[in-house]
Automatic annotation (TrEMBL):
UniProt keywords, alphabetically: Transferase
Residue intervals passing through the bilayer: none
Listed GO MF terms: transferase activity
Superkingdom field: Bacteria
Protein name listed in UniProt: Glycosyltransferase
Pfam families from the UniProt entry: Glycos_transf_2
SUPFAM superfamilies: Nucleotide-diphospho-sugar transferases
Domain Glycosyltransferase 2-like: 53-181
Length: 539
């Protein structure tokens, strides 16, 4: 087996040419999540050029909002490059803008057709003019350089998700005035507003520390990019599709997952901080909060830990999209490729059988003549299986699905081979795994995030996030290795040699042999004796 580390090239691809880390000033080739290759500008030499829109979704709590805006009025980021959009989620009484606020501050009200923080953020982004969106909760008091610290990163690359730092403090109404907050923040003493020993950190700090500041890549690094304070380029926000307004709780986690799928690099910004006024719901009512979120997140985020403990089933977003080009294969050959996946622990899949033609004819003449017989049998065998679709052409890659497995033809798969292929991909942290198929082109297991980032870096498109450029759908292979080169360079690639079984395993046409005890009973006992034996064994 050959492993290609990030920065190297598979032997089956054209020789990877060493080139500058950056294809453009804003799209450097960052390996996995190692953002330390970037060099944010320093205060001495920096002249900011990007405009930022601070979007604040808010519902009630006018007093906290006043303190949030007072702190923003004292930021070091140039006032002519910063605007604030406060989104009132139909508060009663309506929110108002205080006198002490940033120069460019607007108040908009959400439409009554929806509600919640996701709808508020989307509404704010729709009204924002900045090139970068910084989402800030309405109960946050930011340090003087909080906005500037995040914006430094966005001047180095346009596909970063920068997470701001915060500490939680119990809130007492009337404790501070906006003028007091503004004065402390303006002179750089925001940390003195509260006693550090009375505050608590967020659980995400443990994740950040455990992953060396997120540079040790893990597929679930995205989960730290939640709520309170964080920023990304406006265009990248749109690429990911914005927040899901159907989710009243957990929308930030689901959005962060889609950002990772789109190829985002997650950066924890810890040189500045902010005070979170009050303890969040998930800390005060952790168990109840988890129960309220699990069904929604599990349906949409295959990589989340809650999902990994569940038995395989049909989910809204599967772990793997498996595309099998059927061609002229018969139903037994198709079942040999599909059954081991559906029936085993690798069943968190959505399988598309690509036929290259429309549905099989069902008229008398066609059936009696045998026209389309194999396709009819395939349609009948899988017509009631919700995890299997039959299509004339390969579907567009689904950017929400983390992995895509492409088989150029049906082959008998080994039990657990898809799972072991995934394990190999995660063990070597690869973006592409080529599965050996005797006598033909290899199967391809693609990491959606890796291919999405490669497309963003190179500015290519048209085939969709997670798909390889120039693929010939009739063959299920990649005619151009250019995108594979980039993936190999930023994420790595490897080979898998144990995908295909010598004989079909566990399909309806090739059932597994009976165990020794069953064969013995059938040979030496008649049906009545076997029934009595089963009754005795059940006691």
């Amino acid at each position: 087996m050959l492993n290609w580390e990030a920065g190297q090239c598979p032997l089956s691809l054209p020789r990877y040419r060493e080139r500058e880390m950056s294809d453009s000033p804003k799209r450097p080739r960052i390996v996995r999540n190692d953002y330390k290759a970037l060099h944010p500008p320093t205060a001495a030499s920096w002249q900011p050029s990007l405009a930022v829109s601070v979007v604040i979704p808010a519902y009630g709590a006018q007093e906290k909002l006043d303190l949030t805006l007072a702190a923003l009025a004292a930021q070091t980021y140039p006032a002519d490059l910063m605007e604030v959009v406060v989104v009132d989620d139909n508060s009663a009484p309506p929110l108002r803008l205080p006198e002490l606020r940033p120069e460019h501050t607007r108040l908009v009200t959400t439409t009554p057709d929806s509600w919640g923080s996701a709808h508020g953020v989307n509404t704010g982004v729709a009204h924002a003019d900045g090139q970068v969106i910084l989402r800030l909760d309405s109960d946050m008091v930011a340090y003087r350089d909080h906005v500037e610290a995040q914006m430094r990163w966005h001047h180095t690359a346009d596909y970063l998700a920068v997470l701001g730092h915060k500490r939680f403090i119990a809130w007492e109404p009337g404790r501070l005035t906006p003028e007091q907050v503004h004065e402390k923040v303006l002179v750089g003493e925001a940390e003195a507003l509260f006693a550090i020993e009375d505050s608590t950190t967020h659980w995400i700090e443990k994740v950040i520390a455990d992953t060396d500041g997120l540079t040790a890549h893990h597929p679930t690094n995205y989960r730290v990019f939640i709520g309170a304070t964080g920023s990304l380029h406006r265009d990248f926000f749109k690429t990911a599709g914005g927040l899901d307004t159907d989710l009243r709780l957990g929308s930030d986690t689901e959005f962060a997952y889609r950002l990772s799928q789109a190829g985002a690099v997650f950066v924890p910004e810890t040189t500045s901080s902010a005070w979170h006024l009050g303890i969040p719901q998930m800390q005060e009512k952790e168990e109840e909060g988890r129960r309220q979120r699990v069904p929604y997140i599990a349906q949409r985020v295959p990589l989340h830990g809650w999902r990994r403990t569940a038995a395989p089933r049909a989910w809204r977003v599967p772990l793997v999209d498996m595309v099998v080009h059927v061609g002229d294969a018969n139903v037994a050959e198709v079942d040999a490729a599909v059954a081991p996946v559906l029936g085993g622990p690798d069943g968190d899949v959505r399988i598309t059988l690509v036929t290259g033609q429309g549905p099989a004819p069902q008229d008398r003449a066609s059936i009696l003549a045998g026209e389309g017989a194999q396709l009819r049998l395939v349609e009948e065998l899988y017509g009631s299986e919700s995890r299997v679709r039959i299509a004339a052409r390969a579907p567009e890659p689904d950017p929400a699905v983390p992995y895509r497995l492409l088989l150029p033809r049906p082959v008998p798969l080994r039990a657990r081979s898809v799972g072991r292929m995934l394990q190999l991909m995660e063990r070597v942290d690869a973006g592409l795994v080529l599965g050996e198929i005797p006598g033909g082109p290899p199967a391809r297991l693609e990491r959606t995030a890796a291919f999405a980032r490669a497309r963003h870096i190179t500015g290519t498109g048209g085939a969709g996030i997670g798909d390889s450029a120039g693929r010939n759908d009739s063959a299920g292979i990649n005619d151009s290795a250019d995108i594979d080169q980039v993936v190999a360079g930023i994420w790595g690639a490897t080979n898998f040699t144990d995908l295909v079984a010598p004989e079909p395993e566990g399909s309806v046409f090739n059932p597994p042999p009976a165990d020794i005890a069953r064969r013995f009973a059938r040979k030496y006992f008649n049906a009545r004796q076997r029934a009595r034996l089963r009754a005795v064994l059940k006691r």
